[in-house]
Amino acid sequence: MGIGTFALIGAALFYLIYLIKGLLLRKQGINVNLLGDKDHSREKYFEIILKVLTGIGGILQIATPFLFDINKTGWAYVGVVLIYFGVLLFLIAVRAMGLNWRAGYNEKQKTELVTSGIYRFSRNPAFVAFDLLYLGFAMLFPNILMLFMAVIAVVLFDQQIRGEEKFLLMAFGDCYRQYQAAVRRYF
Length: 187
Hints:
Blueprint: H1 3-27, H2 41-67, H3 75-97, H4 125-140, H5 144-182
């Protein structure tokens, strides 16, 4: 099995975790895809763009081993390690969120603030996992498209996090402020 196939399996596992978690929550009547359902136009359109670009990014990651040459240096192995670390981190993060996991946020849907498990070390481990996945692919397949997608993903996910933090401050007040003071946004 080549390193490109190994990367493809990693991406497939990552998105499979995302889809399975969403389906399991949907079976319990929980809508997990909240991106783009805001009343405020700026937030709504930003989240729609994020959703579209994340979908394109996932398709590109699955197609990349067939479209682009693999990095022939040792950095390719670093890329694969980042991909699989992202998969593992994402699995741990969505499990720790339990019934509170969502893609996006909505003022009308109630959730609990999760501060245990992996969330004791990072306020956003699922987003860190997405970043690692994109960065790993950029290292494994270093071309302008993958590098562009990695930079765009990191910037857009950071903006999404900042929007979610405003919501969490409104929803959980001092409890979230204390959590922010104790745990870093990323690591």
